[in-house]
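Protein modeling request. Please complete all fields; requests missing the sequence field cannot be processed.
Requester role: graduate student
Desired output: 3D structure, token encoding
Chains: 1
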Amino acid sequence: MPEGAWREQRSFSHSVASPFPGVRPMPQRFKPTGDELGHLSPRKVPGSTAVYRLRLLSQSSYLTTASPAERDSLVAGGKFRYEGVPGFISTQAGAGKMAICRVSKGSFWKIIPTAQAGDFRSQGWTGCDGVGYTWTTA
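Delivered output (138 residues):
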């Protein structure tokens, strides 16, 4: 786990706070669910990539991706605004890491542990687009 990583919750792409000096917290617009998604690094470390936060312009809904191509395509389509990088995620599986993915329902998206994808599909969520791996310990 990179030194200085920070905790996020199921509302990962919605409510991000950083306890580290010099790391600007993202706006907190939604109530955290309390479900842990592991930790992101506040800075790029070997084997990590940026996580990008996008806001749907037509309503208060957010999408998180680790793909610069997806970010650029969605922003160029005119329906999303790029809001920045809340942190960095591991690109490699390993001990002390949890796979996470993105599911969707209409124009709402959630980041969930990949192991819970079946539960979310039974509730009408679709997909399980891999995002990467969070660190499970600080």
